[in-house]
């Protein structure tokens, strides 16, 4: 197929026509808005939870309400992670643009419903959780197909840049959501959901008006058995990890809870069954043979580790700022969610600076050095964060978090381009979904993994420190011991939600009314608790950030071994030397050669029937 920009029809095509030379930029702008909308909403609720729970008059720290809190945090992420691969495959079969457009509709309707929550208390929380799940369905449709739509629309020499911008919007959205949620929740908790409505309506109309199907649809039947085993297996596994951070019996976490263990084991068994099913059914949901491609496999593995580290850092920095640093610098606990988002802006700025640039450069010089270098910068920033004092000078914190954002931006764009460029054209939708699944699952996993690590670090020092600190202010040994033995997750959630931790812990005991007013004021003031918890918290930070740094180094090794591509010239040479499997594969080789030399195609296009008759293998291992 000749380049769209040189066809006679292109010169007279309208701006939104599929053959117009600028159609690719329409596709990029629309899908970037879609990804930004979906990912902003994955984090906007995190920073707004205090205002939301106050708005529906529910105490999230009450033992009976913790499940509401967990599902408000995790519901969107879980559904997005579970369904994104299925929607990617359905996009391959029924139209990527069709599924993407439907995602905008579902997302917009659910945003309207969220903003109109009619109930209070538990009923209000259930309404929000239910519609957040529906919103996650819409987000999964958008995330699963936006990358594939861009891969279809852009030629190989611009694909890294386009995917880079798209992924910058995706990941930057998770940080922008923190600031936006803090600002909007100061005005009204419903505004957290209102903000998505006009953008959703505009995006829905725009996508239906401007986007076109450029891919050849698959006509295979739906692999229901594969879809069900994958969705249930991943959902059960992530739900078990979510409940693993809740206390169980005398344990500070729930990893010994039989239901959690059953979920972990059952989820792994179902996912293993999915792999077996996909190798045996005639029309699989996902060609597992794609993981024999080292670029695809290593790129997704590196993306998963990067998502876990990024999500863990986000949660730890929020707790650090809201529970310790901001109160020690004069900020009221109620205002810390807003200011935590503002003080985390250097991460977003670093990402926005590095992401598009690395995508553009990787198109010309290869992606490996940028992906590896970016991950090593992220690892170094984690080491720097664990070395600075808990009551840090802000300029040093800002510098380290900016470096973290730069490193993430350098990695994300080349990694996305490498993964999406490693699959046949007819698998781009499901491959995009698989990549989205790894990113969303990584965000969900990060909560369970890093909260558990932080709790483990706190458990060794916090009880004794808290017991001694409370008794020094006149709290009775019985109450001090009782509060000190409470699971550290309560303290972490209080700090995470911008609540006054000691007021939340001591209020139900009546201890604040039994001690002198000056002592009560000291305990619930801005200085005492942050100073008291600083040393135990730092011990937890060491465990968390060392683990995160190790993950980034392992991800860098994966990218070095096989998770990224070389330069365009090297790719063209490799395509010329290897036997192409299909017309799509030949077209990629033609693009590469034309990009590098401006010459005629490397080899003639071979019809798919001829390659099938000759028994030529596809890159995914099929014939």
TrEMBL record:
UniProt feature, compositional bias: Acidic residues: 587-596
Domain Major facilitator superfamily (MFS) profile: 27-502
TM regions (residue ranges): 25-48, 68-87, 99-116, 128-151, 163-185, 191-212, 224-246, 258-277, 298-326, 338-358, 370-388, 437-458, 540-561
GO function terms (MF aspect): transmembrane transporter activity
Entry-linked InterPro entries: MFS, MFS_dom, MFS_trans_sf
UniProt region (Disordered), positions on chain: 577-623
Highest taxon of the lineage: Bacteria
Any one annotated GO CC term: plasma membrane
Protein name per the record: MFS transporter
UniProt-annotated location(s): Cell membrane
Keywords from the named record: Cell membrane, Membrane, Transmembrane, Transmembrane helix, Transport
UniProt membrane topology term: Multi-pass membrane protein
Pfam families (alphabetical): MFS_1
Entry keyword Amino-acid biosynthesis: no
Main location as per UniProt: membrane
